[in-house]
Model the fold of this input.
Amino acid sequence: MRTWIQEIEKYSRPGACCKMLVGNKCDCTEQRQVTFEEGQELANSYQMPFLETSARNSLNVDEAFVTMTKEIKDKNLT
Done:
């Protein structure tokens, strides 16, 4: 993830991109690689929203799109 953030910062204008960290398959608790707290901490360190999603259970899938849409809208209005 840190490499992706570096690429975004390298190739975009400062403040021009909206970023959000999305953890997927949160319904697969036995195979979890990253805790919710670790994900939230990483997102906080990059000052971006964090959500965990599950397409299987439809958990936070719409919320991820709504959150990103609001971020884009807010950025374009300022």
The longest helix spans residues 61-77. Helices lie at 2-11, 36-45, 61-77. The mean pLDDT is 89. The first strand starts at residue 21 and ends at 23.
